[in-house]
Write a structure and sequence with these properties.
Elements (H helix, E strand, L loop, with lengths): L7 H4 E7 L7 H14 L6 H12 L3 E3 L2 E2 L15 E13 L2 E10 L4 H13 L2 H8 L4 H14 L1
Parallel strand pairs: 1-4, 3-5
Antiparallel strand pairs: 2-3, 4-5
């Protein structure tokens, strides 16, 4: 593990975990994922616009009911600290025709998002882990899932 790569659990503030959210649409879901990063002090508000901009060019839906919204390269200067947010939508959100029940917001400086995405992919591409994330009702469950990834490396 490189010096820059922090465990996922350290990038997720408890206040950035919202497990009972509702969103009117994809953009509302992205704004909520961004707002959780903003509330944690990880980004400037302009990063939320960069997240929406990214989504309009490339969908961040990754399958298994999960999307991983993150900003464009141009939005990087709005990132103060690498961070994650986990927003769960029990009633699901229509994400360009896909049903999403978890949005994992990512803020990263430099190329940090690539390492984060690969770490997250190990959870999200495992149907059992993805199902556990979709069903998570406590922050502890989310931390346990992320911690399992940290230990696998």
């Amino acid at each position: 593990m490189s010096d820059e790569s922090k465990p996922l659990t350290e990038l997720l503030a408890e206040q950035s975990i919202r497990l009972d959210a509702t969103a009117t649409d994809r953009d509302d879901a992205i704004r909520q994922a961004g707002q959780a990063l903003l509330d944690a002090g990880a980004i400037d508000a302009s990063y939320i616009d960069a997240m929406l901009e990214r989504e309009n060019s490339v969908s961040t839906f990754v399958g298994e009911g999960v999307a991983i919204p993150h900003g464009t390269l141009a939005g990087k200067e709005a990132v103060k600290d690498d961070a994650l947010s986990v927003i769960r939508f029990p009633a699901t959100v229509d994400w360009d025709g896909n049903e999403v029940s978890v949005a994992v917001g990512i803020a990263a400086k430099g190329n940090g998002h690539i390492a984060l995405l690969s770490q997250l992919a190990t959870i999200l591409l495992d149907p059992e882990k993805a199902a556990a994330l979709r069903g998570a009702t406590t922050p502890e469950t989310v931390y346990e899932l992320l911690a399992a990834t940290d230990e696998d490396e």
